[in-house]
Amino acid sequence: MKYLLFQPEELDELMRFLTANLDESYKPEVFLKIQSQWPDGFAIARRGGIIVGAACGALLPGNKLRVLILVLAPEVQRQGHGRKLLEMLMAAGRKRGCKRVALEARVDSAAVKFYRHLGFSSVDLLPCYYQDGGDAVVMERLV
């Protein structure tokens, strides 16, 4: 597995990966904007030259890092790759002075258990957060 910073020329491949692995849909220009604002906060995982994971974040006021996306292809889940991508984001955040990291996860997803295992605590509930009306839990921890 190779962990690399996302490059704009990888956008089409990234969008195909996200469409195949997320229920939510995003406009491609969103990812170009995220990458241009904080290149070190946008990582991908490649196996055999193919994108199998992606993580991106944003720097928020108050020295906070917000994880916008952390997604892996099903065949590479539960092998430590999500942790590695998240660690890359948090290390980049620490370099920029971030003290806390926050994210949202679907309340009924395995992601909640994953994040709790990594030291995240639930701090809020967002009703009807997702496009399909699903609720999200806001989770935080120290960087």
- How much helical structure, as a percent, in the residues? 25-40%
Unreliable sequence segments: none
Task: Specify the CATH homologous superfamily.
Answer: Gcn5-related N-acetyltransferase (GNAT)
The shape is globular
Number of helices: 4
Order of helices and strands: EHHEEEHEHEE
First-last Cα distance: 24 Å
On the 0-100 scale, what is the average pLDDT?
95
Residue fraction in strands: 25-35%
Described by its quaternary structure, the protein is single chain
Number of structural domains: 1
- State the major sheet: 7 strands, mixed
Radius of gyration: 14 Å
Here the CATH topology equals: Aminopeptidase
What does this structure look like?
This protein has helices at residues 11-21, 28-37, 81-95, 110-117; strands spanning 2-5, 42-47, 50-60, 64-72, 100-106, 121-126, 136-142. The chain has 143 residues and is of the alpha+beta class. The protein has one domain (2-142): Aminopeptidase. Strands 1-2-3-4-5-7-6 form a seven-stranded mixed sheet. β4 (64-72), α3 and β5 (100-106) form a beta-alpha-beta unit. The model has no long low-confidence stretch (mean pLDDT 95).
Supply database-style keywords:
alpha+beta; Aminopeptidase; 31% helix; 143 residues
